[in-house]
Specification:
Blueprint lengths: L2 H20 L1 E9 L4 E6 L4 E7 L4 E6 L5 E6 L3 E6 L4 E7 L4 E6 L6 E5 L4 E6 L4 E7 L5 E6 L5 E6 L4 E6 L4 E7 L4 E6 L5 E6 L4 E6 L4 E7 L4 E6 L5 E6 L4 E6 L4 E7 L4 E6 L5 E6 L4 E6 L4 E7 L4 E10 L20
Length: 339
């Protein structure tokens, strides 16, 4: 091949790659429990671009790494899979009444769903939409069941209690209970799995757990009714939503101190970061909106009206291209889910 022809081919390949990148957009998906819908927000414009009817009372939400599918817990008892490109429900599995938060392991091969009224955690294979194990908790009313990044543990918060159940993933059972404070809710791990942060809502605290020792090593005073936890990918900051105060606080993981605070809407709940970590989306269930925080300045940059009682948020980039046709029941499929 001549140098001239090689140069032309190189330019064409580069152009095609650039065009493909231009087609990739990032969206936030927000479950609205009161409306029975999911709001779709373009993070580049902070505008709602669509609304999907999903179940009756959707709460927890996660997405496949390629952004083609959502996994949503409905309070009627189902975990619903929704194909974004086809704009349709593409699968479901019956769990138990009142499933809450939905979290996936780092490999995207296993999903944990907190079953509030059953006092159990369901592990679901997203490739087959099948429950592979149900693990009974020692605590009552789990809300979140979160995998450690290294995949060894699941920490599950017992909403009606003061503890976190530690589940050994390999054994598939609870191996320890850690007292963290009254009414634990959101949980987040540092990227290296060394520590976990747990919001204790009625204690107005965040408990810091040394994962190797499986014990609390610090308690951080937080604002009123601390509940949501999101860890920044750099591992240096933890965001805590405080439902009673209407703020999101920023914790420094080196000092375990609150270093900043951002005003948001009413009753902030669960949160998600954009892939670059520069913006935090906060579901504000009391004011029916999503607040967007700049994670450099810690200032609110947008307040986006959504449906009634927004609960969960997940953010994923996805190409604006049609998905290949998927036959009902054809398993496994592309787009293995991850948190």
């Amino acid at each position: 091949m001549s140098r001239c022809m090689l140069a032309v081919v190189t330019m064409l390949v580069a152009g095609a790659a650039a065009a493909m990148m231009d087609d990739i957009r990032t969206y936030a998906y927000v479950t609205n429990e009161g409306s029975g819908t999911v709001s779709v927000i373009d993070v580049a414009t902070h505008r709602v671009t669509g609304t999907m009817k999903v179940g009756d009372r959707p709460r927890g939400i996660a997405a496949s790494p390629d952004g083609s599918r959502l996994y949503i817990s409905d309070q009627g008892g189902r975990l619903i899979e929704r194909d974004i490109f086809m704009s349709m429900e593409s699968g479901s599995v019956m769990l138990a009444h009142s499933p809450d938060a939905v979290h996936f392991d780092a490999d995207g091969k296993l999903l944990a769903v907190a079953l509030e009224e059953s006092n159990a955690i369901a592990l679901v294979d997203p490739a087959y939409m099948k429950v592979v194990k149900t693990i009974g908790m020692r605590g009552k009313n789990p809300e979140h069941a979160v995998f450690s990044p290294n995949g060894r543990w699941i920490y599950a918060s017992a909403e009606e209690g003061d503890s976190v159940d530690v589940i050994d993933v390999a054994k598939g059972e609870v191996v320890k209970v850690i007292e963290v404070g009254a009414r634990p809710r959101g949980i987040g791990f540092l990227p290296d799995s060394s520590r976990a942060y747990v919001a204790a809502e009625n204690a107005n605290q965040v408990a810091v757990i040394d994962v190797a020792r499986q014990e609390v090593v610090a308690r951080i005073e937080a604002a009123s009714r601390a509940n949501g936890i999101t860890v920044h990918p750099d591992g240096k900051r933890v965001f805590v939503s405080a439902g009673g105060a209407g703020v999101v606080q920023v914790l420094d993981t080196t000092t375990n101190r609150v270093v900043a605070e951002a005003q948001v809407g009413q009753r902030p709940w669960n949160m998600a970061l954009t892939p670059d970590g520069k913006q935090l989306y906060v579901a504000c269930g009391g004011s029916n909106e999503v607040s967007v925080i700049d994670t450099t300045t810690y200032k609110s940059v947008a307040r986006i009206p959504v449906g009634t009682r927004p609960w969960g948020v997940v953010i994923r980039p996805r190409p604006d291209l049609p998905a290949e046709p998927v036959e009902q029941g054809a398993r496994p499929r592309r787009g293995q889910a991850s948190d």
